[in-house]
Known about the structure:
Strand order of the largest sheet: 2-1-3-4-5
Strand content: 5-15%
Mean pLDDT: 92
Number of helices: 5
Shape: globular
Radius of gyration: 14 Å
Distance between the termini: 5 Å
Amino acid sequence: MKSVVICGSRRYRTEIRKLEKKLQDNGIVVFAPILNTNRNIDKLEPDLKRYAFLGLTLHHLEYMRKADVAFFYNKEGYLGNSSTMELGAAAVLGKPIYALEEDKTEPCRNVLFDKIVTTPSKLIKLLK
């Protein structure tokens, strides 16, 4: 069985958490994003804010290194800045890259997706 790192925007936090649970319930090792919703981070001093975001970024990149597969939860084709950076990391690391949907605005992202996987059930099948 393969492990998966989930990448996606915190705007889809609820859906990503449901996907994470469904995968785990099926015995799949999941490296999930933190998806911090604490808006107080914007009130930090610039040095502390930079350090917080550096930690979040490096933490998720470590998950990318550990996982067998990268899955991008890009509902409605949306990938934000962080997920776009993670997509590049997955490509450089040679990870199989799956996405929920095709990107509607950036064809250069689509060429990096190995497979579009539209349901959790299909993703589970691919990972088992």
